[in-house]
Amino acid sequence: MTHQYVCDGRVLDEELFCDRIVGYLYSRIREQAPAVFKAVVSGRASSLLGFLNYDLPLGARLSGAETLIRRLGIDLGECVEEAAYYDTPRRIFERRIRYADVRPMDESPEAVVSPADSRMFAGSLSEGSVLFIKDKFFSFGEFLGRRQWVEAFAGGEFAVFRLTPDKYHYNHVPVSGVVRDFYEIEGAFHSCNPSAVISEATPFSRNRRAVTVIDTDVAGGSRCGLVAMVEVAALMIGQIVQAYAGEGYEPAEPMHPGLFLRKGQPKSLYRPGSSLDVLFFQPGRVEFGADLVANQFRRDVGSRFSNWLDRPWVETDVRVRRTIGRVVTSTIQD
Prior knowledge:
It contains 12 helices and 16 strands. The protein is α+β, with helices and mostly antiparallel strands.
């Protein structure tokens, strides 16, 4: 079964990396050899798979960096380093881009931007919303972990950004504000392939993840209340590196309470593979783009999520720093 998404108004087929292997792993192996399945999605196995795929020089020579770059459709003209630098899979996947030039951003305070080059869909935690999906992709309370933030975001909106292996793997800050909390939650490394997602109950709640809570109702902030950014590790992601940079990529610093984050700046790096980000907003503070919401309910797109949910649920391809929504101005606090 194909998996389609919308990009610039066009319906495109996604090339799902290792789709047959993932399907086999999440069906036959999980059912017939649960101990083996558990071992494969463990942190140690995920790091080993990442090493074998991205770090061994032999692997780079066999596949050829140029062949990999062409297959993934990567434009090295966007990158910071010269083309000759990208001679291993890991360097290709962890590339840095001239984001100020090649990923322009709406600088207006009310614009909320995408944290990643990714496939995106929006959702709601409110049962009265057309975007409401209960406990499918994650169990909300379990996903955020800490009760105070579960209560703060109850009934609000969220957006999921799925990074495929070909994507630029730096995450950027979606809003401006001060870090109020940062913590990590241990978990497994399940694949973010749509087949894996629909095979596991609340799969995102089971993966290792990092939670950053940003207070935007501060001087210089985006004025849309609290925003939680959750970075979710997945298969072959050995590490989520927190590396906020106020300009360029260096100097970088880790997340900590009190740190001011400026919208559009690099925040973290996935080492490498497929992964995803989830943003949570408080009720009524942000309105998603009408085009993104309209795409989500298209019936002419063959999304595996639509088949799973028995209703249209389509992703849109978005680029990092693109506007995905606006602050609801009537809720802006002085």
